[in-house]
Design goal:
Elements lengths: L1 E2 L4 E2 L3 H17 L6 H13 L22 E4 L2 E5 L10
Antiparallel strand pairs: 1-2, 3-4
């Protein structure tokens, strides 16, 4: 049964499925998917079959800085892996 605050449609599961198939067909076949007509059909479909609630996205990863790189420049000299610690390269 589909209920709305102002109207109730007493549809069987088969009738609801048929109505959704028709709405899906109309929406998918229309080349103007942002037209007012299609927006209304999508709103009707959402009342019959609400979209599932989606989990929120995780927070964005922090951006890496130059200091986070595994190799750091040593004042224009050859790069040395930071994993080995700070090494002074004397000439």
């Amino acid at each position: 049964m589909i209920q709305h605050s102002d109207m109730t449609l007493d549809l069987t599961d088969e009738e609801t499925a048929a109505l959704l198939r028709e709405l899906d067909g109309l929406i998918d076949a229309d080349r103007y998917f942002l037209s007012p007509r299609i927006r209304i059909l999508k709103a009707i479909r959402a009342k019959i079959r609400p979209e599932p609630v989606r989990e929120p996205l995780p927070p964005p990863l922090r951006q890496r800085s130059r200091d986070d790189e595994p190799f750091a420049e040593l004042s224009g000299r050859q790069a040395v892996p930071r994993l080995l610690g700070e090494i002074s390269l004397a000439h």
